[in-house]
Write a structure and sequence with these properties.
The chain has a single domain (5-53, 72-191, 216-295), classed as Alpha-Beta Barrel (TIM Barrel). It has 9 helices and 16 strands. The strands form 4 sheets. Strands 3-4-7-8-9-10-15-16 form an 8-stranded parallel beta barrel, surrounded by 5 helices. The chain starts with a strand and ends in a 16-residue tail after the last helix. It has helices at residues 27-30, 77-88, 104-115, 142-153, 171-181, 219-232, 246-255, 265-268, 272-286; strands spanning 5-7, 10-12, 16-18, 40-42, 59-62, 65-68, 94-99, 121-125, 160-163, 185-188, 192-195, 197-198, 203-204, 210-214, 237-240, 259-262. The longest helix is centred in the C-terminal third of the chain and has 15 residues, at 272-286. A hairpin with a 2-residue loop joins β1 and β2 (10-12).
Length: 302
């Protein structure tokens, strides 16, 4: 039975990837299991300089998921290269460096620096606010998606994954723009924007007022968007959004994902990633599927 998948020329032992922002740099989860059991880790979103993140409250539960506005707390790209890559290289899982920035220059500098480091893939988070465009997210305008992908591609010597925002009217337009700009793969979806209010105080629960919604509540939206993007582009897709079981992962693969990312589920069960891998394997055994790649895009639509 083959669980290996290939994303832009990089072979993963299995299609399960720990999603950025939910797994840190793997240190806490390595206390529970051997990180070699999963295909890859997309590390905490990196910025050029260290960031303290947003003030509390910055995470809250909601129906079927969570809202977060952590604000990209991270030690900065230099500290990641020096301190975290050597730790992660103890394991067979691939390293995906997730990049976040406020300008084109931020992304280009990080892509160049990380390409010279010992990582396997780069993931560009384009849901960040573009400070030179009045704060609108890079990923909400197809023209901007094309331009930033084309620009960063020149500095990226590793395969470049573009992480798409779901907060658009038509995600296929931004997906096609990333493809035209030179992306090697796509990951989707990033969090949906949401808000929660404390009715007793009549104040927003999150200090930043609006946050990103993730968890099982977003899964139907994510599956639909993966399905649409799979039909609209030829790029390999890493699907995510509310995956908590092996069957959830299979659902994403049937919709068109070549691999999947597990995010919020890691907070409620530190063993979520290996359990989901085992769930995929159990599904394959039940339906006599020898190669996990045979699931990709095989949803039956009459």
């Amino acid at each position: 039975m083959n669980l290996k998948v290939n994303i832009a020329g990089i072979e993963l032992e299995n299609p399960v990837i720990a999603a950025s922002g939910t797994f840190g740099f793997g240190r806490e989860y390595a206390e529970f299991y051997d990180l070699s059991e999963i295909g890859a880790i997309s590390v905490k979103g990196l910025t050029k300089a260290p960031r303290a993140g947003n003030p509390p409250t910055r995470i809250t539960e909601t129906y079927g998921g969570i809202l977060n506005s952590v604000g990209l707390q991270n030690p900065g790209v230099d500290a990641f290269i020096k301190e975290e890559i050597p730790f992660l290289r103890q394991y067979r899982c691939k390293i995906i460096a997730n990049m976040a920035g406020s300008t084109f220059e931020d992304y280009c500098e990080m892509a160049e620096k990380l390409s010279d480091a010992d990582v396997d893939l780069l993931e560009m988070n384009i849901s960040c606010p573009n400070v030179k465009a009045g704060g609108a997210a890079f990923g909400t305008n197809p023209d901007t998606v094309y331009e930033i992908t084309k620009t960063v591609r020149k500095y990226a010597k590793r395969p470049l994954i573009v992480k798409l925002s779901p907060n658009v009217s038509d995600i296929t337009e931004t997906a096609k723009a990333a493809e035209a700009g030179g992306a090697d793969a796509l990951s989707l979806i990033n969090t949906l924007t949401g808000m929660a209010i404390d009715v007793k105080t009549r104040r927003p629960i999150l200090a930043n007022v609006i946050g990103g919604m993730s968890g099982p509540c977003v899964k139907p939206v994510a599956v639909r968007m993966v399905y649409q993007v799979h039909k609209a582009t030829k790029l390999p897709i890493i699907g995510m959004g509310g995956i908590t079981t092996g069957d959830d992962a299979v659902e994403f693969m049937l919709a068109g994902s070549h691999a999947i990312m597990v995010g919020t589920a890691n907070f409620t069960d530190p063993y979520a990633c290996p359990k989901i891998r085992d769930g995929i394997q159990a599904y394959m055994k039940q339906y006599n599927i020898e190669d996990v790649n045979d699931l990709v895009g095989k949803v039956i639509v009459d």
